[in-house]
Amino acid sequence: MARVRKILAIDIGSSKVVAMETWIRDGEEIETPHLGVVETDAFLAGELRDMEEGIHALDQAIRKALGGKRYDKRPVFVGVSNPRFSWRIVDGHVSVSGRRIEKNDLERAMVDACQISLPEDEVVLYAHPNRFHVDNSRDVKNPIGMPGKRLEVDALLTLAKRTDLEKLNAVFDALNIKNVTYCYHPLATSFAVLDEEDFEEGAILLDFGKMKTNVAVWYRNGVLFLGTMIGGGEHITHDLQNELRIPRQMAESVKMEIGDVFEPENPDEVISLSIGGQDLVRRFRRAEAIEIIRARVEDIFRDRLVPYIEHHRVFQRVHTRVILVGGAAKMPGIPALIQHYLDLPVYLGTVRGFQKKSPVYKDLSLAAVAGVARMAQAILGFGLQSSRLPVRSRGLRSGFRRFVEFLKENF
pTM here? Predict the structure, then answer.
């Protein structure tokens, strides 16, 4: 009988909290019996803004995810992102004296890489073995069994501000939830959406959400860039509301129903909206709304995203594709418009590794919580079909040992 582990995967976003009961089995797709979604702005742009509301929203989402039951002490994995979060590549190495590399050598190299000093206000969320090198051979996928003199590892550390993490911990403490592992959204979502070709040949993952856009860039099975940038669908709604002088809810409807904003049909069509019954009618040309949307998308992706990651020379190395997910990705014509500004093919993402009946297949806004579940699958050692397994900073040795066992069994 296959092992089974029941966990809670939670996505903390700017517009909602999503909790998902998750069943993970050896060699099988993930099962998600229940999903709990609660609309809230308590965690605006990744920052806790309302403690009481945050506790209430999480409690309600968890109860829904557990079929009305209270939290039952199972492990909880939480996806978070914040523009103040950061990442760092650190080097580790060990001598292997010409013999064949063993699993313990990988562990020792990873531990060596993590022996660094951090600023007082930073804490490691988790460590991730990004690349291995053996002597003069670079970017080795699996070094176990290779003869060599020196093994090196480039370890990816994801870092959070201590005060931000303490606020989140306080929310979970209020719910008597102690067994929490935090996952950085851009990396977690990568595991749910990207495939082997994306990891190897290069891909840019964009999670276009309400208030922020998460970015992960991969090439040759390693991370080139991670980041969280302010800018999302809510900014488009705000622009429409102000420029067209319409209520917010009406602006949200215009955003999602205006039609293709890249190659629109009938741009000169006049749209009439009734505000407050029949007493006030607002009329505007479809082209006017389209121009407002295009201006904000141009600002986010051409004027800010490109310079945001350009200093890492990403666009010089990754010239294959962009994978787009997130609630704002549902807007008509958005993939084509982003493709126009980034000059790279843009495709809507598909969640992988879950049973077909899972709700995460049906909604691009659920890619983040799917990523949290996939990352939990890797951390717990349940055979994620990828050589890129993350390692929790707490319990580094035991976590990395699971990673090594996976390499031995699958390569």
Answer: 0.88
Separation of alpha carbons 231 and 296, rounded Å? 9
* Distances from the Cα of 60 to the Cα of 19, 66, 80, 370, angstroms: 9, 10, 18, 19
- Taken in order of first residue, the domains within the chain and their CATH numbers are 86-161 (3.30.1490.110), 196-349 (3.30.420.40)
Element spanning 250, H or E = helix 248-257
Query: Model confidence at 387, in pLDDT bands (50, 70, 90)?
Result: very low
Q: Two tokens at 69? A: 């039951």
Helix, strand, coil abundance in the chain, percent, nearest 5:
40, 30, 35
State the DSSP H helix or E strand holding residue 150, giving kind and residue range, or none if neither.
strand 150-161
Q: Is the pLDDT of residue 401 over 60?
A: no
Residue 114 DSSP label: T
Q: Counting every residue, how long is the chain?
A: 411
pLDDT tens for each residue of 355-382: 989 999 888 999 999 999 999 998 887 6
Structure tokens at 139: 């970017």
* pLDDT for 287 beyond 60: yes
Handedness of CA 95, 101, 105, 107 (dihedral sign): positive
pLDDT of 143-160, one tens digit each? 989 999 999 999 999 999
Label residue 108 exposed, middle or buried (CB < 10 Å: 0-12, 13-18, 19+). Answer: buried
Counting other chains too, the contacts that 358-365 makes at CB distance below 8 Å and 24 or more residues apart are 358/30, 358/31, 358/32, 359/32, 359/35, 360/20, 360/32, 360/192, 364/324, 364/325, 364/326, 364/327, 364/329, 364/330, 365/209, 365/325, 365/326, 365/327, 365/330
- Determine the Cα–Cα distance for residues 4 and 381; give it in Å rounded to an integer: 11
Model confidence over 159-168: pLDDT tens digits? 999 999 999 9
Strand partners, 160: 123
Closest listed residue to residue 79, CA positions, set 182, 157, 164, 6: 182
Separation CA 371–CA 227 (nearest Å): 16
> What DSSP state is assigned to residue 338?
H
Exposed e or buried b per residue across 298-337, where buried means at least 16 C-beta atoms within 10 angstroms of its C-beta = ebbbeeebeebbeeeebeeebeebbbbbbbbbbbbbbbeb
